[in-house]
Structure formats: C-alpha cells, structure tokens
C-alpha cells in the first residue's frame, strides 16, 4: 500500500529511516569486479575440468546438526537461521562438510568415487577486516577426490591441480607439506598426552606467525605441557633443512620410526614426492614439520601454498586428506565399521587470488560487457533504422547495442561506445540509408587512416563485421 | 575432540542420531543435473551479453529493513537470520529489491544507466512441492534495464531478450501483455475506490486459474466491492479479441480514454508494438486485460510468457516496468522529489526451464565431465608410464584422466572410459612403451574398423589427439 501511495503521490514520500548498506562483513561487486571474478572462475574451472572434475550444488544452508562438532572452536562463527517454526538450519561454513554429507547420502556404489569441484559462497561470523578482504560472505573454491584408490595417487593429482591453478592465474608460489601421522607421531614420541594432541597441534600451527618462544609459552603456561616435552617438540618443528635432508634425518630417527603412524606417514611423503616428480611439480614442494593446519578432520598429508614475496607473503591455497569425515555421516556397516569414503582435497583461496588480480589492473581499463558493435546515427535520430540494424546484428549472433533514445546526440553515442570499450561502430546517416550503405569504424585505432570508416553495402555488413569480430575477440 | 577419537578408534563410533538430509524445500544437484544447469546458464548468459548486459553480485542476505514492505502479504515467506548479536538480516526474496538497493547506493551519475543481469539463488519459506519443482531455495535469472530513456525503447529490448532466451532454449511460448496504468484506469473508471485498487487487482490476477464468477465473488463478498462495479470490471477483463481489435475497442471507449493514465498506457502499448514489429517479436505478444501481476511495484507495462501446450501450459518468464522502486531507497532531492531511476526488467523462470530441459533428456546420456582422453594400460599396471602420459596431455591443455590405482584391471579401465563417456583412449602396454609407440582409440565408434586403434609414434600423440579433440568438441 505504501508503494501505491508513492506511485500516486511521489512528492509526498518522506525519507525512510533505514540504513542504506549491505550487512556487516558483506559487500556488492560491481560489473567490472564481476568481469574479473567470472574470468577467474572460468580459468579455474578449465583447470578443474582438465583433471576430470565434475561439479555439484548443495544448499546454502544445512541442518544445524550436520555442521555441529566439525569446526572445533570456530563453531561459534556459524550463522544460524532464525527459528520461524520448522527445522534448525545454519548457513554453510565451508564446502567440505556439505560435500561429505552429500557423499554419505548417495547410497549407490557409483558415488563412492568422484572428482568434484565447487565454487560457491560460504559464511562465517568472524570479525571482518574489509580492507584486507576478510569478509563474512566469501567464495570458496574446492577440488576433492573421493574414493578408495591406491596410496598417494589422488594426493599427487590434487597437488598437481593446485599447481596448475596457481600457474593459470600467474601467481608464484611454493607448497609447505606435512603429514598428520608424522606430526601426531612426533607429539606422541615427545610425550604429549593423547587428549592434548589436537590442542598442542593448534599451538604449533601458529609458528608461521609467532616465534618458537611464544608458542612454547602457550604450550607450557596456557596448556600445562611439561617443559621438557615442549623442548623436544621444539627440536622437531624448528628443523630447517632441504626436503631430502629432512627426510633422511627423520629416517635416521629410530625412536620416531618405531612409531607406526609416523613411519607410515614418512613412506607416504616419499611416495608422493616420487609422483610429483613425474607431474613436474616436485620442486614446488617443501616438507615443513611446523605446518599443522587447524581443522580437526585431516588424517594424512596436509599442505598449504604460500605466495612468493612478489605478491605479499600469505596462504593462497590449502588442503589435505580426510579419510573419516564421510564416515561421520554414513554410519556403520554390519561389521560395525564406519562406511566411510576416503577423500583428499584442496581449497583455492579464490578471494585472495581475486585481490591480487585486481591489484594488477586499472579498474577503468576493465571491460565489463561483451558488446562488439555499437550502432550510431548521424543526424536526425533515425531510431527505427538503428533498431533495424541492431535486430540484424542480434539475429546474426553479434553482441550489439545502441542508445535507447529517440534523438541521441552524436557526441553522446561516441562517448557511450568509448566508455563501454566497444571495438566497432556501425554508423548511419540519411545518406547511407538512402544509398543502402553503412559505415564501419574500428573504434580501437586512434589513428585517422580509416577516416570516416569503411563504407560498404548494407548487405555485406554482417559478413564484414563477423570477420572483424572474430579477429578482435579470438 | 570427537573427531580425534573417531580417528584413533573408528570401530568405537556409534551411529549418530541426526537426520541425514537437506533442509525442507532444498535439494542437492548431482553432476549430471549440474552439467545441464551450467549449460543452461551459459546459454542464457550469452543472450544477455548479446544485448549488452553486465552482471553484479549482491549478498545472499540483506538488512531486514531493505526487504520489508516490498512484497505485500508474501513478506511472511522471508527467511530471517537468527539474532546472534548485531544486525537484523534476512535472506533475499528476489533479485529485484537488492538491485534497486544497489542502484540507490551508487551515488555517481554513471550508475544511473545500467543493463544488468544476475543469475543467483533466492529464498522463500513457501510450502514446497518438490515434485513440481517448487523449492524454498531456487535460482532466479533477471535482466533489467535501469535508466531514464525514451518511451518504450528499453521495454521493447527487454521483450526481445525474453524472446531470444526462450528461442535459445527451444521452448515455444507466447507473451501476455498489459499495462498497470490501463488497468488502474479501468478500475477507477469502473468506480473502484482508490484504496482498494491493489486488492481488486490481486483478485483479477487470479483469472488465469479461476472463472470470472469466483473472482467476482471474491471482489463482492470478501472485499466488499459494489456488484455493479464488479460487473463493469468483468466487461473489461473478459474481453477476448485479437490485439488490434482490442486496441481499437479501448480507443473507442471515450470514458476510459478520458482517464489520463489509461490513455497514456494505451499510447505506450501501441508504441511498444511498433518497436516489437521491428524486433521481429510482435506476433509473440497478445494484449490481455486480465493480466494483473501480483507485485506492488510495477508502474507501466507488465507481461508474462506462457509456454505452449507442448511443454505443459504455465508461466515461464515475467516482468514489467517499475519506475519508483529505486526511489524508495535513494530518498528525495532538494526539491523533495524522489531521486528514482526508472527500470524495466524480466525474470526468466530458469528452474522451470531446467525441468523442461531435464524432461527432454535421458539422465544416463548426460556427460557430466569434460574429459577428452582416458589413459589405459594393458598388462602390468604401468602406473608411472600412465602418469607420464597424462602429464604430457595436461601440459598440452588436453583434459585427461586415468585410473588412480597401481594395477587396475583392463576391463575396469574400459568401463570407466565408457561410463564417463570419454571419446578417446590412449592405450599402452609393455610393447608400446619399449618401441616408443602409443595406441589411440576412438571410443565413440562401435564398429571394429579401427581394430586395436591407431598406432603411432609417441612424439606424434599430442598433435594427433588435438586434431581429434577439436573435431569431436567443436
């Protein structure tokens, strides 16, 4: 009813007292940003498809129980939907848990093997830092290989995919690699009580930002770990060696090698590196015992790709193997074992990549439309003639626009064509109409060689423009 | 911590008591459905770009105040986020109101003109009918032209875009057209009190599902309209004539033509039809005085595209002109007039289109991956040799896969290749490896002409496959 009143009496509208903004931690993306984003998504999708990836879609919100108990302390950052009668739902926090839920719901044998990618929004009620691009609504971009395969083969392909993706967006990087079973082996061998392993692991994960002394203090003073245990951990996680030397060092560590998990983890890493050699990405990877990764659900190799200094150092992709997550949803089989599906995956920090790509561009130079031809009239408006021309162009599959006015000024038409970075103009005046001609002008060349443009018979317009457009766009 | 225990003692996991499902009214889309959906989105995007469209992105949730008072009675269907401290937010109900909010926030003159499209999810707590595809989370697909242009030129392009889109997805249709000012003029001339116009209009909107007698009953008995007023309305909205005759009939109606709005509306429709003639879509459009459209915010032409009988009759796209919506957000200028931006747009019923496309396909025939080549070994596994081959293919930009096992059975490799509908296989055995050869087989041809396939030097593999792939995919 308010609208009807507005409609009939626009002059009576008083300014409303709401705030004209997007919610905290969210933002709009304008057409130029979206052109860059979509180009980025397409580039990544191509790499994902090169590796046999297929995509699925899951709802933006899930049953609350599906998400609970998956994210440790960060569960407090989950957005809940209001109780409006009905089910308790929450916005998804990542794409991995919904994917595991999806796999568990596919009863059939078919779905037990899947290379799936997904580029979609996730939600976290974190303290936003808009200037650093830390938002509450952001895209994640995941590739995961689900299925029981042979050791380290899917893991190697995932790291290859990570590398191919970074190469495709031209971001220099290296990969820190570790293995949960090596890490847990170290903690056990050093004497960490089993129930403290995840919490001590979380402390180690801070070593990329804090010096060892601070991390040790957290372990000993906050978490009550014995100092000698902490010191032994420090000896491991502070080891700085090239990967072959580090592998040899661990291999020679009889106490650690007597730990079944650590020994298996080391064999995994060695085999993985062999495969990565074949995939031409071995030299991108560095074994780093201080990499721990926050999420609880990893069970095998873990990794993090870091940009090189040229782009400001920071994590740009990460992932790992999580063999038990699907089992949390799919229950147990008759023998009482969880019907799990082993998985390994990577999440590309696509928002970070987007920021880097934007920082390389002058926003004014970004063309946001795909228009190839602008139809311009000289003189008396010629609206219907311009409409006939765009109609011909559209029917021929050419992306064409014109000024949606009866009698647009010539100057304004030129300006629109230039502002929208449209490469070709079709120009008509009374003379051209009467003699059955059109003028075609290449708007990209600033030199005056072409004078008023190429004059040709109307019937040849489409074939000539198709030639020009093909050259300009491909 | 639960996860750590699961990790260490998987056999102890007891079946959880949560429901393994997606929330009511939502669903997953598997990889085959997604292949069809993405193809559909790409097809529509191409049409939108042909008409100069650019895209933007807005958050999935908005400040609650932005949405309130925009959807009449349907506001009760809006999903709210829980109050977790902070702002009151709700999931978006459509893409139009967020677009109007976006436009109002762009202060600059630049954003006053925009052809924008958006294909994104919206949310409605409606009673879902999954079998009919009525969901609580679904995609909308909108194209809108914002800006002060000359009469009916953008409106004509919007109807052209609607038509081009339906043609691109090969769905036969026709368009019902009406004009809010003609309709409101009819109501006023018939004697409907101003404050009842929207409510009577909502009753008329039911004429596509109910007979006139029922609609009249609603007007008279439920809404208290005088019976003679209802009868006069009935004389108008039941008029069945071809469009030129109907236009003539209204033109001859002196009482109606004395109404300023109705007379302007009629002039609009006539001009629009002239333009649609030039755009070759005039014969798709039929003036229909019984079309009212539910939403409050329309101010000019309104339309609805209906599928022809072959696809089961139903609305497949709809829209109209809404000149005052942006003004509701942008406040007033110094003269006290709302700083509005006139808009006209169309929403393609993309979920309905998707259902029609799926009903035309056998789901098993849908190829969900983009893989072009499958690498197969005969004999002893040859894992590293297969890895070297896929690596070569990937580096050449060819989409390639292989079985992620050490010693896969030949049969299983063929099966994977067939199931994933991969057109070409590269086959190696010990003999080929030793003699520096590979075999290429076209998996699409069932005849045995090719025997064991084409044997060629390893160094010629890429160029031969590129040729074959180009032929197969383009």
From TrEMBL, chains A, B:
UniProt xrefs under HAMAP family: His_tRNA_synth
Source organism: Mucor circinelloides f. circinelloides (strain 1006PhL) (Mucormycosis agent)
Chief location category: cytoplasm
NCBIfam families: hisS
Keywords attached to this entry: Aminoacyl-tRNA synthetase, ATP-binding, Cytoplasm, Ligase, Nucleotide-binding, Protein biosynthesis
GO molecular function: ATP binding; histidine-tRNA ligase activity; RNA binding
Taxonomy, superkingdom: Eukaryota
Positions that bind L-histidine: 94-96, 124, 140, 144, 293, 297-298
GO biological process: histidyl-tRNA aminoacylation; mitochondrial translation
Role according to the record: Catalyzes the aminoacylation of histidyl-tRNA in both the cytoplasm and the mitochondrion.
Homology family: Belongs to the class-II aminoacyl-tRNA synthetase family.
Catalytic activity: tRNA(His) + L-histidine + ATP = L-histidyl-tRNA(His) + AMP + diphosphate + H(+)
Protein name: Histidine--tRNA ligase, mitochondrial
Keyword Nucleotide-binding: yes
Domain Aminoacyl-transfer RNA synthetases class-II family profile: 25-365
Compartmental location: Cytoplasm
The enzyme's E.C. designation: 6.1.1.21
InterPro entries: aa-tRNA-synth_II (IPR006195), aa-tRNA-synth_II/BPL/LPL (IPR045864), Anticodon-bd (IPR004154), Anticodon-bd_dom_sf (IPR036621), His-tRNA-ligase (IPR015807), HisRS-like_core (IPR041715), HisRS/HisZ (IPR004516), HisRS_anticodon (IPR033656)
One GO location term (cellular component): mitochondrion
């Amino acid at each position: 009813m308010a609208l009807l009143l507005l409609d009939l009496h626009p002059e009576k509208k008083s300014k409303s007292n709401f705030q004209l903004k997007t919610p905290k931690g969210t933002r709009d993306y304008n057409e130029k940003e979206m052109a860059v984003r979509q180009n980025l998504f397409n580039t990544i999708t191509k790499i994902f498809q090169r590796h046999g990836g297929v995509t699925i879609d899951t709802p933006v919100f899930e049953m609350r129980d599906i998400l609970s108990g998956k994210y440790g302390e960060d569960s407090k950052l989950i957005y809940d939907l209001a109780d409006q009668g009905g089910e308790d739902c929450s916005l998804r926090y990542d794409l991995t848990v919904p994917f595991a839920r999806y796999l568990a719901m596919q009863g059939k044998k078919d779905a037990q093997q899947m290379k799936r990618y997904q580029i979609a929004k996730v939600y976290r009620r974190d303290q936003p830092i808009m200037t650093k691009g830390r938002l509450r609504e952001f895209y994640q971009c995941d590739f995961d290989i689900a299925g029981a395969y042979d050791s380290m083969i899917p893991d190697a392909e995932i790291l290859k995919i990570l590398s191919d993706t970074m190469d495709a967006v031209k971001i220099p990087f290296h990969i820190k690699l570790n293995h949960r079973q090596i890490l847990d082996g170290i903690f056990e061998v050093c004497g960490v009580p089993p129930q403290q392993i995840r919490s001590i692991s979380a402390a180690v994960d801070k070593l990329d930002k804090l010096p060892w002394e601070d991390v040790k203090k957290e372990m000993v003073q906050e978490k009550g770990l014995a100092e000698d245990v902490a010191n032994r951990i420090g000896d491991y996680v502070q080891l700085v060696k090239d990967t072959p030397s580090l592998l040899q060092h661990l291999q020679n560590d009889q106490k650690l090698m007597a730990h079944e998990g650590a020994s298996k983890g080391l064999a995994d890493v060695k085999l993985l590196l062999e495969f990565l050699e074949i995939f031409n990405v071995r030299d991108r990877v560095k074994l780093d015992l201080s990499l721990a990764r926050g999420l609880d659900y990893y069970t095998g190799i873990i990794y993090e790709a870091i940009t090189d200094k040229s782009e400001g150092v920071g994590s740009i992709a990460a992932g790992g193997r999580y063999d038990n997550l699907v089992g949390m949803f799919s229950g147990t089989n008759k023998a009482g074992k969880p019907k799990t599906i082993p998985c390994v995956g990577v999440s590309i920090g696509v928002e970070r990549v987007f920021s880097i790509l934007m920082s390389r561009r002058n926003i004014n130079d970004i063309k946001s439309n795909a228009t190839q031809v602008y139809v311009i009239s000289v003189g008396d408006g010629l609206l219907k003639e311009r409409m006939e021309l765009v109609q011909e162009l559209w029917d021929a599959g050419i992306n064409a626009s014109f000024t949606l006015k009866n009698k647009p000024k010539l100057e304004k038409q030129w300006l629109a064509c230039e502002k929208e970075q449209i490469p070709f103009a079709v120009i008509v005046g009374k003379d051209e109409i009467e003699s059955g001609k059109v003028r075609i002008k290449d708007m990209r060349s600033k030199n005056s060689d072409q004078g008023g443009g190429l004059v040709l018979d109307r019937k040849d317009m489409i074939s000539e423009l198709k030639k020009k457009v093909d050259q300009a766009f491909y």
